[in-house]
Write a structure and sequence with these properties.
2 domains; alpha+beta; 18% helix; four-stranded antiparallel β-sheet; six-stranded mixed β-sheet; globular; 4 helices
Length: 299
């Protein structure tokens, strides 16, 4: 399968008179060294908001990008610069050719999904009975459906009767239950990972027949069922030291230069422009090692 790197770029221009202007609130954020800092200025808020939007768009590019390569292998779209626009396939498009199963929209069967996993798991890692951890990426309604399936499945075993789910409160008793993992007889421990993108109503338009969220929220993607050639089957790829870019173009006033009468300017504006860019993508070496379980409404 042929793929190519994708690129995303964003920019934001800030007015010079807003540098260090305080805001009516404060918040705590962590830097790259995981140290907490109290933010109190409009500039810090603008930086935080811009970075959040950039990282969100970068995440969508890696997961949901669709290639614009034509059937003959060429790229025919031309940008304003005169160069061809090239975009590679994201994770979703690359695993479209993987194993896809459908269930009846409402009930996910524990034994059925265990047997499906046994069909696609890597048999070179010790075979039947060898411990391995598998995560299903899903939405909040998919995680809830999986919880109910495990809860109902556990009722088959009388020894499961226990008081561990009970706890005391100042006013009496409470009960807690959150079934998230299941270990099958083949040694596979199956858990769930809730991805908020599955519940995004802007991207996912098909509603679930139950009226509870979008249909995508009930989908399960199992991405780590094996390795290819001793390496991870799904990897983030980019050219070394060129995956993430950040720069700024100074105008009359900017927060990055030392104070002084003579300043370097690349723009006549009273302000500065922040630039962010990413070049890279997602590589799936063997899509057949992935498994997607969807409700029938997405068939």
């Amino acid at each position: 399968m042929k793929n190519t790197f994708s690129m995303i770029r964003m920019q934001d221009t800030r007015p010079g008179n807003m540098i260090s202007r305080p805001v009516a609130f404060s918040w705590v954020a962590k830097d790259s060294n995981n140290k907490q800092h109290v933010m109190t200025t409009w500039q810090q808020y603008a930086d935080w908001e811009f970075e959040q939007q950039y990282q969100d768009m970068k995440d969508k590019l890696i997961n949901f990008a669709t290639t614009n390569r034509a059937a003959d292998g060429t790229f025919r779209q031309i940008g304003y610069s005169g160069f061809r626009i090239e975009q590679g396939a994201g994770l979703e498009q690359q695993i479209e050719s993987s194993n896809v199963l459908y269930f009846n929209n409402f009930d996910i069967d524990v034994e059925w999904i265990t047997e499906a996993l046994m069909d696609v798991t890597d048999n070179n890692r010790g075979g039947y009975g060898t411990s391995r951890m598998v995560l299903m990426r899903t939405g909040k309604w998919g995680a809830y459906a999986w919880h109910k399936a495990l809860r109902n499945y556990s009722q088959l075993y009388t020894p499961f009767t226990t008081d561990k789910m009970l706890y005391t409160t100042p006013d009496g008793w409470g009960i807690q239950e959150n079934f998230v993992q299941y270990r099958g007889p083949d040694g596979t421990t199956l858990g769930v990972l809730v991805d908020p993108a599955y519940d995004d109503e802007e991207r996912n338009k098909i509603k679930h027949p139950s009226g509870k969220g979008v249909a995508k929220s009930w989908e399960y993607q199992i991405l780590n069922v094996g390795r290819t050639g001793g390496e991870d089957n799904i990897r983030l790829v980019f050219q070394k030291d060129m995956e993430d870019y950040m720069g700024y173009m100074p105008g009359l006033r900017d927060p990055f230069q030392a104070k002084g009468a003579m300043r370097y300017m690349a723009s006549p504006e009273d302000g500065y422009t922040i630039h962010r860019a990413f070049v890279g993508g997602c590589m799936v070496q063997d899509p057949t090692r992935c498994l997607t379980v969807r409700p029938n409404v997405l068939a």
